[in-house]
Every structure is written in structure tokens, then in C-alpha cells.
Amino acid sequence: MESSEKVLLCKKCKAKAVIEARSDAFCEACYIRSIENKIRRQFELLRPNLVDKCSKKALVCVSGGLNSMAMLETVYYLSSYREDNYRPMFGDLIAVHLQLPTSTVEEEDMIRTVIKQKYPKCAYVYVSEHEYMSQCTYVNALGSQVREPAVSTAETEQTNFLNVSSTTSRQDLLHRMRDRVLLQLAHENHCDTLVYGDSASTLAAKTLELVAEGRGHAIPASTGVCTRPAVAPDVAILRPLREVLEQELRSYMGMKGLQFVSRELDSRLTTMFDVSKNYFLNLGEQFPSLVSTIVRTSGKLSAPQDGVCCRLCLLPMQENTHSWLNSTTVQHPTNLELSDEACKQQRDDVCYGCMVSLGGLKAPLAWPRFVAKQS
User: Fold this and answer.
1) Which of 38, 84, 95, 202 has the least CB density, counted as fewest CB within 10 Å?
2) pTM greater than 0.85
3) Is the Cα torsion angle 233, 235, 67, 98 positive or negative in sign?
4) d(Cα 272, Cα 279) in Å, to the nearest integer?
């Protein structure tokens, strides 16, 4: 007797299922609705943290990748731009694409085209590396501010992060610089919220990366669903995709026919974040609940209310990190002629993570300025 294949039925409407996620089967329509409800529910939980339970003006971080484009779809749906939205969560939206050394022209073209066609009322701003590095300071391997080197701005942009010897340190500093610039842009554009498209997979990878890099104090500020940086308490940073795995977002985007830039992880996995991300992507396929558990656990952490922030990354830091660093590591000799007392004074406002990432610096690193405009 021939055995017939079991037909999976959607758990919601009992139609033929097309996808199985977290042990549940869904038809296409119910799956799309399920993912959207998860994201929108997170947004609704964030309303009490906002003045008048809505954001007057939000800066949306758009890289063109899977997570950020999925987030933009939901933010636009919840905004006042949708005519039948009787209770919008967002007023004006500004989608910002920040050029990084890893960015491509194709990414920028795709983002601009998609926003123009699908989200026409959303303002779009492309910020080139030249723009945000036009006013910068220079730091050495100790985190101390030094004199500007005699090189052109164009040369600085091309070689700046090549001066960082380790690929993990380079990526770490790029992430800190990106967040610093986006926070500054939120200030300059008078935005009361800054929205990131970090999925549960990304947040779990961030948590592991921060622990490995000695940035444990920064976990609440870097992964929390709603945080207000101490240097800019008037801006609420939102991460509404924390309940959705990256694999689920990929299926969701495919079903809705939404465009995004597909970025495959380097097979060599040379950075701490890439190793962590690859681990949680694989883990999410077989044990999705474990990824969610890590994100929820990190969400229970809180930073000290009166804590000190790093001058470079603007994240909460452990005090007296220079003493801890000197007692636990052996640093290579440096050709900088600074007294021990001078080094100590400069290091008091630089966190352990930034110290380690700057440790192998070959030449002064250009770092964008941050001007706090506290309320």
C-alpha cells in the first residue's frame, strides 16, 4: 500500500500551508499577517515611551539590507502617510542611508528607487562619507586626540579604516562610528526617535559580540527595544524587529515581493560579529526559541542611571578601565611619547572596547565629531 504525503494545513485558516515556522504551518496570507502582527505589536508596546504616545519625527536607518527594508515597510504602514491610519505612531519620516567604506553604488540606487516608488511621502537622505567626515577629530592608539595629519580629505576617506590592523577591530569601530553619526543626524533633523532594523538574529549576535569585545556595559544600550542614550536623552532609539528571526523576515519579504540587497556572509568569517551572526542564523533554523531566549535575557539588563559614557562610542562604560586594561593585558610598545599620567587622563573617558580596537592603529584615525544638544 502506497503511503500518501501528509498535507500540512495552515494553523489559522486551515488552507494548504506553504511554509512551516517554529513548528507551526501557515498559508502565505496568514504567514505575512503573523510576521506583521509581531512587528506591530512591538511598536504598540513602545508607545508609552513616547511623548503623546507617538513620534512626531522619526529617523529610519536604511542600509538596503533585509532587516532595514522590512522595518521600513512597517514604519511607513504605521505612519500618518497612510490615509486610513486613524491612530498613527509616526508623523514625519526621514529614511537615511549612511555611506560606509563597505557601501556600494548599487545599494544606494536600489534604496532611492524603492522609496520613490513604494514610499513616496517618506523623505530620503543619502549621507556620503565626505559629508560626515568633513568635521572630524583624530585619535591615536591610546584614544587620545592628536593633531590633524598633513593628508587630503580624499586620502583620509580612502585609507582611514585601513589603519586599523584587525578586521574585527575595524568592523567594531565602523559600527560605533555609524551609530554615532546617526545619533548626530537625529539631533540635527530634530527627530525624537531613531529606528533600527535589528532582527532577533542580529541582536543575539550583537550580544555575543559585545561580551567578547569587553563591552558588556553597553549591551542594554545596544540591544534594548527602547533606549535613550545618556548623551542625547531627547532621542528614543527603537528596535522593533526583536521578536522576528532573520530567516522569517527573508520568507516574509519574498512573499510580499519587497526588494532588498542580499548580503551573504564571508565564508572566511574573519570578524567576531560575522562568526556570531553565522552561529545564530544556523541556530535559528533548528532551535529558534534559543535565539529568542538570548534576546529576552539581554533585554532584562539595565545600564546604571548615573553611569559614565565613552567619549568615542558614546556607550556606557566601566569606570577606571585603564587600570583594568593594564592589569589584564600586555600592550605592545608605542612610539607615542606620552607620560603615564597623560595616558591615564586621556583613557579615563575611553571605554575598554574602544581601547582594544584602537590598540593596533597604524596611524591617527579620523573620528566624526558629536555635538550633544540635550533637552
Assistant:
1) 84
2) yes
3) negative
4) 11
